[in-house]
Amino acid sequence: MPKLKQLKEKRASVYSQIDELRKAADGREMTSEEQARWDTLLAEYTKADKAVEAEERFVEIHRRQAETVAEQRAEGTDAEEEYRSAFRDYLLHGAQGISAEQRAAFESRDTLQGLSAGVLIPATLASSIEKALKSYGGMFEAGSIITTSNGGDLIMPTINDTSAKATIVTEYAQSSKRTPSFGSVTLKAFTYRTPIIPVSQELLQDSAFNLDSLLSDLLVESFGRGINEHLTTGSGSGQPKGIVTAASASAATAAATAISLDNILDLIKGVDSAYAKNGKFMFNRNTLFALAKIKDNDGRYIWQDGTRTGAPSTLFGKNYVINDDMADIGAGNASVLFGDLSKYKIRMVKNFRVIRLNELLAEYLSVGLFGFARVDGTLLDAGTHPVQKLVHAKS
Fold first, then answer.
1. Where are the domains of the chain?
2. For residue range 7-57, what is the model confidence (pLDDT) as tens digits?
3. How deeply is 141 buried, as exposed, middle or buried, from its count of CB atoms within 10 A (0-12, 13-18, 19+)?
4. DSSP codes, 349-361
5. Could you give the C-alpha distances from 260 to 264, 294, 302, 391, in angstroms and in order?
């Protein structure tokens, strides 16, 4: 029941008692007990009436605030649509073909004086690109994305206190002291550019063509190939440190050309329970088909098809991520990862940008478009090895 209704009912109840007492006296002088009750009820009514007034005032304030928020959201939606329209005109006509209002919209979004630094992709398009990247490359699906407002070094602290345990201490005895192991990793901002994409003026001017879909498909394909590869196997020198590079090797070594059930069990066993609880596998599609053939000691396949139950497919009861930048099963390769993949941090600076080149392809009646983003990535490992890799023997 709404609070205002409760307060009004309480006030009405006090009024009923006052009215009953008044009728009982029926014009005669009240007794001392009746007078005391009369004074008490009047005081209660005054208090209840003030509570109703206060709640009515709050309800009115809440209504006005809700209207204000709705108006702000509508204005924000309108502003985003205006920016989206300006972005389309920029792609169609270039920096010289947009209005002063549209230019101001770009500059207010990110102080892009003269548009020399390109323009930010509208939020709706940027969101679709990020979603597509998650399905295109396994790292954007598995890792944790951190967005920063500038490209300065981002220092991520680490701490290892896994060996600390509570102990029994007798009364008045001094507690033991232990200093956790602190560390840090630094995320930089490497600039990734897509190849220049030629787009015909006819295509840009075709109002029936979905320009957002075109850009999303083209940019995701280019970004996905370059960024996902480095986030997977990058060396960490002049490029992100890929998850395979950063992961610790499992104590067990797989055969040069095959994976056994024991290899998978040893890989899971080697990851601390704190990480294995939410652990996932990562491997490429070829490795998935090889793993799907493995059976346990009871003759059951360790790969379970999720379509039977409506749940995701699993490997040994654990979810997995397909990443085709992982190496195939082969001598010396690391073909399978297991652990808490969210401990891999992907740092992105602001958002994607798009540059329009007017003259480069003018003779083909086309414009050149390319995008760029600043990205880095690394695995947060304080010595606890949240992700381990299965490495094959070299021969």
1. 3-84, 121-160+183-395
2. 888 888 888 888 888 888 777 888 888 888 888 888 888 898 888 888 888
3. middle
4. ES--EEEEESSTT
5. 7, 7, 11, 12
Per-residue DSSP letter, 254: B
Report yes or no: 328 and 254 within 8 Å, Cβ to Cβ. Answer: no
Render pLDDT for 94-136 as a digit per residue (tens, 0 to 9).
Answer: 766 777 777 677 666 654 444 544 566 666 666 667 767 777 7
Kind plus residue range of the DSSP H or E element containing 346 = strand 344-349
Question: Cα–Cα distances in Å, from 382 out to 166, 232, 307, 388?
Answer: 21, 20, 38, 14
Any bridge partners for residue 347, and if so which?
146, 376
pLDDT at 247: 96
Measure the N-to-C terminal CA separation of the chain; round to a whole number of Å. Answer: 74
In the chain, the amino acid numbered 253 is T
Q: Report how far residue 200's alpha carbon sits from residue 214's, in angstroms, rounded to the nearest whole number.
A: 12
Q: Which of 234-248, 268-282, 358-372 has the lowest mean pLDDT?
A: 358-372
Cα 80 from Cα 102, distance rounded (Å) = 12
Q: Tell me the backbone φ, ψ of residue 366, rounded to 5 degrees.
A: -135, 160
Q: In CATH, what number does 121-160+183-395 get?
A: 3.90.1690
CA distance 147 to 162: 29
Q: CA-to-CA distance for 330 and 286, rounded, in angstroms? A: 11
Considering 113-117, 174-178, 264-268, the range whose residues carry the highest mean pLDDT is: 264-268
pTM given for the model: 0.68
**In b/e form, how buried is each residue of 171-181, taking b as 16+ CB within 10 angstroms?**
eeeeeeeeeee
